[in-house]
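Reviewer 2 asked us to include a model.

Predict the structure of this chain.
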Amino acid sequence: MDQRSASKIRARLGTVLSVVLTGALLFPLATGCAYSVKPGKLRPGIESVAVPYFENRSTEPDIEVELTDAILNGLINDRTLRVTDDSRADVLVVGTVRSYRFQEAFFGADRQAEEYRIDIEVEVELRRRSDDESVAGPKVIRGTGSFYVDEGAAGEAAAREEAAQMIVEGILNLVVEEW
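Predicted model (C-alpha cells):
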C-alpha cells in the first residue's frame, strides 16, 4: 500500500469515527433520553393530586381563589404529578392562606415608596384521599414578590404571581422525598 492510499484511508476512518461519535452523543438528546438530576423521588403511592380551594384567613379578599388557581396551573405545568379531581387523586393539597402582606420595600431620596413587596404565607398539608391521613405537613410556605410603583397594577399582579410560584415550588418539595 502506498503512502497516498494510507493517508486516504486514515482520513476516511477519521471522518467515519467523527460521525459515529457525534451520533452517539446527539442521539440521546434528540430522542429525549438525556439524564436529568432531580432532588429526590416522588413519595410512594403519590402519582396524582387534587387541589381543593384553600381556606382564606387573610384580610385579602379572594386571594384563596387566585392562589389555588396559580397552584393548579403550576402543578399542571410542572408535570411531576397528574392533576385530577378530588374523587380520583391519590393526595389532596389542603391549604389555608394564613396571611397576605402588602408593604413598602424601598424608599427613594424623597422618602416616597418606590418599590412594594407582597408576602403570602400558606399552611399546606398533603392528605391521602383514601383514608384522610397526612402524607406530609402541615408546613408553612412563604412566597414573596416585589414590584416598582411605576409598574402599577400589572406589576402588582406579576409580584403576586412570583409569590405564588414560590409556594408551588414549596408544595412540590413536599411531594418529593429527599434521597
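The first helix runs from residue 3 to 30. The chain is about 40% helix and 35% strand. We have added this to the supplementary material.
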